[in-house]
Design a protein that fits this description.
The chain contains 17 helices and 13 strands. By secondary structure, it is of the alpha/beta class. Helix 16 crosses helix 17.
């Protein structure tokens, strides 16, 4: 506990002092960020620029290497436009070079220890410290090998408190373990030109519309050609069985917003399977008088255009997680609807004080209550924004503490394993 309090106090100093000025370093430290899991979901894209923005803010003189899973489809270009000094490591030779030059490996936010094999390789081949930043842990994603890898980390931040509790129960013994928000809250990518053009073409006025996101109960990756996944009959059957249950409350909310307020609704996707789903389960099943004030986004988008759209909205509701995360990161109200197959990540809404905007669709009462919450945001957008702002403050206070811990680690002679942190 004493060590944790010491590390947290360091974070307060880091808030106002660049790393090099604070510690008098002359040789820049280098971090290898392991992130960018896939590009078919703007949330998975968002993990990386969020963490990069935090590193830029709190450790401005640190050189960052990105060891990605996938940065195709214009994602690498988008990242480089925002972070021109970023070095993307994609070839075996480049990875070996990064292993030699980098002082620390940081595993980015994700649904699990996504790159467990990469982290284990870093640990085995370099002996240098590493940390984990904002992940969910579930019984299915925590075999003994993962528990051992997490225990060897300098720190592990979990993006929901239930994951932290599970890690403790499974015996993870990293020196610093705490709640640490998903990195996507910090995404600041923008494409205002594209967003403005779309909104103008569909007569959507800033602050006068809400966004709504559909979602299959389990993501049907077999519908995305680039994933090359085989059809899962069991998952398809489950999706079909729960499709109406999971979208009826969204439709009711849309109808009530249109009929009870002056707001319009924009149906948007978070992953590439959701455009067709939004049309089928939302737009096409709305009454005619409501359809005239609902806009359906037909094509997928990247994270920068999505953020530029969200910040022009009055709020967002739906069955996804990371669009709400990016909204709260910009003080835009956001409602999360979840179910068990989505793991415990949704419970981060309770961790940041947004209990009243979290609805569990596995329970009838929550499905019934959800539309009321959406209408409340539409009727009092200013009051809802105050709640979003308070949640954002909690998130960024946690960011400051965790970045302070990372700054302290980099201060040490990280070219060799540190006995204080390496197990």
């Amino acid at each position: 506990m004493k060590r944790r309090l010491l590390l947290q106090s360091i974070a307060a100093t880091v808030l106002s002092s660049p790393f090099t000025a604070l510690y008098g370093e002359t040789t820049p430290k280098r971090i290898l960020l392991c992130s960018s899991w896939q590009t078919v979901n703007i949330g998975d894209i968002g993990h990386t620029p969020g963490v990069l923005a935090l590193l830029e803010k709190y450790l401005p003189d640190t050189e960052i290497y990105l060891w990605p899973g996938d940065v195709s489809g214009g994602v690498e270009e988008m990242l480089m436009a925002r972070f021109p000094k970023l070095q993307v490591v994609k070839t075996p030779g480049a990875v070996n070079k990064a292993f030699g030059e980098c002082d620390f490996l940081l595993h980015g936010s994700g649904p699990s220890l996504v790159a467990a094999e990469k982290v284990a390789r870093w640990r085995k081949e370099t002996g240098k410290p590493y940390g984990v930043y904002g992940i969910t842990l579930s019984p299915s994603s925590s075999p003994d090998s993962v528990i051992e890898t997490l225990s060897g980390a300098a720190f592990v931040y979990f993006r929901d408190s239930l994951s932290l509790a599970l890690a403790v129960s499974k015996g993870v013994k990293a020196p610093v373990m705490a709640f640490g928000p998903d990195g996507a809250f910090a995404v600041d990518l923008r494409d205002d030109a594209k967003a403005d053009a779309f909104l103008k073409a569909h007569d959507l006025q800033e602050g006068q519309f809400l966004c709504c996101i559909p979602r299959y109960n389990t993501t049907p990756y077999w519908l995305i050609p680039k994933k090359k996944k085989a059809l899962s009959p069991e998952r398809q059957e489950k999706n079909d069985a729960l499709k109406e249950r999971d979208h009826a409350p969204l439709r009711e909310a849309i109808v009530r917003v249109v009929r009870e307020t002056k707001m319009k609704v924009l149906i948007v996707p978070e992953d590439e399977t959701q455009m067709a789903l939004g049309k089928e389960m939302l737009l096409d099943r709305l009454p005619e008088d409501v359809q005239s004030r609902v806009v359906w986004r037909e094509h997928f988008w990247l994270t920068n255009e999505a953020v530029s759209t969200y910040v022009r909205s009055a709020g967002l509701f739906g069955n996804e997680m990371h669009s709400p995360i990016m909204c709260i990161g910009h003080e835009i109200p956001a409602i999360v609807c979840r179910w068990e197959s989505q793991t415990t990540k949704g419970f981060m809404w309770k961790d940041i004080g947004l209990d009243e905007w979290l609805f569990d669709f596995d329970h009838d009462t929550d499905r019934v209550r959800m539309p009321d919450a959406v209408v409340a945001i539409a009727k009092d957008p200013a009051g809802a924004r105050v709640k979003a702002s308070k949640a954002r403050s909690i998130v960024f206070q946690n960011y400051a503490r965790s970045m302070g811990v990372l700054a302290e680690l980099l201060k040490q002679k990280t070219s060799q394993p540190s006995p204080s942190f390496h197990r």
